[in-house]
Every structure is written in structure tokens, then in C-alpha cells.
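User: My instructor asked us to take a sequence, write out its structure as C-alpha cells, and then describe one feature of it. I'm not sure where to start. Here is the sequence I was given:
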Amino acid sequence: MKRLLLICMSLWLSAPLQASELGDDGLHKAAWMRETFKDLSEDLEEANAEGKRLAVIIEQQNCIYCKKMHENVFSDPSVFQYLIDHFFVVQINMFGNVEVTDFDGQTLEEREMVSKWGMLFTPTMMFFPDQLDNLAPANVVMVASMPGAFGKETTKNLLSWVKDKIYEIPGVSFQKYHAEKLNARQASQSD
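Assistant: Let's start with the prediction itself. The C-alpha cells for your sequence are:
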């Protein structure tokens, strides 16, 4: 009996605590996602009040790339914690019918909003500035997007590039920033 208890405890302790589960809508649910009324202006205010950056993640049921991101990237302890600490993430169902209010004030069902924004892939993460100069659709005001599944390093680097507003530095594209981070990591590993 003691041995069975030890085996159960070891399995429980080895399970990733950051794993997401599937919700009733068939989409992955993670602790770093926020349940909101999907009014992006209100979500931006709330994100700012918490000192976080607003992001929207567009997903769909049975998406193999969404599954890959949730199981292999978002569940990584450093990525998971970075999302919790620095981002206010709202999930949108690519084919859902929940109403979303865009920054320009227009309210549409999720599937119509995703179409309005011209988003074609899941998962897609859209990142927003902390202040908006005008009322425009989310796809116009976003500072970056990540369409599709990427690895841990690319995802971590994009999150830090957005959080630290590196996109505001002239001449420092994400590609340049990412390459510098990878080169620095490789150099530290070879020492």
C-alpha cells in the first residue's frame, strides 16, 4: 500500500502544474487567461491598472497548433510565469458567437471580429500598446502579432520584446532582437 501511495505521489508531483485543460467550448483554458466581457477598451484599462500588457489569443477547437503551444510552450514554467506576471490575455474563439467590442467601438460576434481583423491562423496572439492614440480596430493598433505555433525561445523573446517595448526602439526589429538573444545564449553556453 505504501508503495502504491509513493507511485501515485510521484506521478502527481511530476505532472506539469501549468497544463491547460479543455473548456466546455473545446478551447484550452490556462491560468494566465482572463475571463472578461471582451470589451477591448475595458480590457486595456484593466491591464494597465494591473501594470500588464493586453494580449488577445485567437484559438479554435481541435487546433493541433493550439494544442502544441499549450502542451509544449505555454506550459513551460518560465513562459507560463512570464504570461501570468506581465500579460492580461483575453481568449477569442475563431468561430465563436460571443460578442466582442473592438477598440473602435464596433461590437461583433467573435467569428465576425476575427474576420474583420483578417486573422487566418490559430493560434494567433495580438499584442497592444498600453495607450491608444485613436479609436481604430485592433488589427490596426496592435504592436505585434504571433500567428501560428513557435518554440519556447521565440515565444519568450517575443513576449519580452513586447513587454519591454523594444518595438519602440528604432532599428530593433523583433528578428534582430531575437537573433541577438539567441546569439547571447549560445555564447554563454559555449563558455
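For the description part of your assignment, you could build on this observation: The chain has eight helices and nine strands. Try explaining in your own words what that tells you about the chain.
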